[in-house]
Amino acid sequence: MPIVVQKYGGSSVADPSRIKAVADRVEAARRAGNDVVVVVSAMGKTTDELISLAADISANPPPREMDMLLTAGERISMALLAMALEVRDIPAVSYTGSQAGILTDSAHGGAKIKEITGHRVRDSLAEGKVVIVAGFQGVDPDSKEVTTLGRGGSDATAVALAASLGADACEIYTDVDGVFTADPRIVTEARKLAEISFDEMLEMSASGAGVLMSRSVEFGRRFHIPIHVRSSMNDQEGTWVKETTMEQAIISGIAHDRSEAKVSVNRLPDRPGVAASVFTPLAEADVNVDMIVQNVSHDGTTDISFTVPRAQVSEAERIAKEVAAQVGAESVDVDLGVGKVSLVGAGMKSHPGIAAKAFSALAASDINIEMISTSTIRISCVVRSEHVERAVQALHDAFDPPMIVEEVGA
């Protein structure tokens, strides 16, 4: 039988009534003649509550114990869903990530999937059972320690399982109807996209769109698994993330992100190797640097600014100050009051004037740009945090995405 992989986020399994609704949807897929694998997140805000509990106990909890704690949430969801299916006379079995054969590296709190063996999953499917897998977790095969995949890791679990099992697609059920041209909480006229390419979705995810974890999109692109993002609250078609789109959009959407901070190293000696002296220790400490700007040299010195996740800003500041002292830089500044706004579209690489139009739109709204970063399909601007929503609206008004190639000459 064809294999269907479905993933349900925390809001979709938030309480018993929602779990029963998920069981109804899974039952329908099973009775339609499919083998069904379900990946579940923790119920509602369970993960946040567990993190808060840990913070009440320890200011710096051991990463191993945090993974042991956080993996409890998905175990609750998977067991309850298995019970709900059994009530409906649908044989089901639940597996933790390790039981399902999800093998990861050893990085607690942000492990990456190395392999999925999936023997027990395949055996259970062959026995006619619905298989429910706890998302967000796996096991390091060398140490046998439980690991977690980071925020949104259930998405990665689901798409990786779909690839391992040879499924035709992966369905990601959430509390929104699909991928929108902008956050509809900010832009009321934002529209749901019928399709978006893997590359565009990767840029949207990396730029702050929280609907899909970027690593899940990478799995989909690498193994050619289409991803269907849709609502668990209705039966409407959602957004397909696929190899190509029917029409190549110049601009597909606008994403925003307030989770970064800016670090500036001021008056660095402007000589070869100084930039490497800043970013090498950051890389060695696994600090994720996003945007980088180096100013023009004056009097033999220069300034370098870069953005990092706020969760890593303390480590980044510590390293930057150590480097500044070593190379003779004047000072290090940290700015928490920034946000990033990104314009994404695969068609922009062949259409000049997109950047100028974007900058003009921000200028017309009296929004100053502090940093700029580009790729062939993305333009990102760092602005003041309080201006992020206005910037999103200004760009959406200027481009009215999805802006399709065929509309250019109209």
Textual characterization of the structure:
By secondary structure, the chain is of the alpha/beta class. It has 2 domains: 3-175, Acetylglutamate kinase-like (Carbamate kinase, 3-Layer(aba) Sandwich), CATH 3.40.1160.10; 246-410, VC0802-like. The protein is built from 11 helices and 22 strands. It has helices spanning 16-31, 46-57, 63-87, 119-126, 153-165, 198-206, 214-223, 274-284, 313-327, 354-364, 388-399, and strands spanning 3-8, 35-40, 92-95, 102-104, 113-116, 130-134, 137-139, 146-148, 170-174, 195-197, 227-231, 239-242, 249-251, 253-257, 260-269, 292-294, 301-309, 331-335, 338-344, 371-375, 378-384, 403-404. The strands form 6 sheets. The protein has an 8-stranded mixed beta sheet, sandwiched between helices. A 4-stranded antiparallel beta sheet has the order 14-19-21-20, with helices on both faces. A hairpin with an 8-residue loop joins strand 4 and strand 5 (113-116). It is globular and about 75 Å long. The N and C termini lie far apart (47 Å). The relative contact order is 0.10. Residues 405-410 have low confidence and may be disordered.
